[in-house]
Amino acid sequence: MNLRTSILLLFLAGVKNTSATNMLGFDIFGDSSKFDPSDSITVDPDTCEYHAEVHINFGAADPPFPSGPDDCTMESTACNGQSCLYEIRNAYKLSKAFRKYTGFNHVGLDWSPCGHPPLDKFGKPHWNMHIFRVSPKAREEVYCEDMLNPFICDFMEEQPNIEGRKFFVHGTDKDGNLANVPASFSAALDTAVPGEGVHAWDIEGTVDVSAWLEPVLIEGLYDGRIQFWEPMFPVEFVTGDSEKFYESNETYVSKTIVSLPSYWSMTYNPDTGVTTLVIEGKAQICPKNSKGGKSGKSSRIRK
Hints:
Low-confidence stretches: 8-22
Number of helices: 5
Number of domains: 1
Strand order of the largest sheet: 3-4-5-9-8-7-6
Mean pLDDT: 90
Shape: globular
Helix content: under 10%
Strand content: 25-35%
Structural class: mainly beta
Radius of gyration: 19 Å
Largest sheet: 7 strands, antiparallel
């Protein structure tokens, strides 16, 4: 049995898990300081356009890797004392200026040692750089009582509580199109992750996992809102001896969140080990004073 088959059997087991009815059941805070994170932002007062950067050293976090299929079972404790099927989460609080002008609150630096479904697309070790528009405290209220398996909420009709049903309420325009996401995006209803939301991305345009080497944009949906904006990328993109670069321009259907990035790029510097995310767009408020830079270097978020 290969690694991907082993993971798939577990995820498809459909084990009902209602033991953690009023909590997420996992730590979203972690310790982001080990990534040596920092951020900066400048805003042009004439155009209200922002240029923001987040700098992360993913290798410095020394993430655990599965050594084989046995580590991607629930019985394993190979990844920091738990199964490598579980994500290892860390929350980095963005600087005050970054939060003020972009509307983003914190970054989830979340490691998936075994990957996650759909395994033919994302079934290998990768980073999930969730950039949340809500606080960690608000994320703790994003839970469901009925689980499809140990990681994913069951569908709306199985959810007895309001919090669980909110996973399946998505903002749309008058034509029924998902709002505030690119036109190619669709919501995968079997990706309702507690503490996050339902994931939407360009499902039809996603390459096979064997060819996945560059970042993919994901957005998170919950209760009609955009919970997060996420570059997700395989470990190969932020490791090795050669520089990596990716960029993309984005337009959004029926855009009502003015500060969503219209341009973004990621650069991995092999000399420093630092990956830089650049996002650009329209600030949600325009600065009154002359333009200038603001930067921050925050420690991990405290509970």
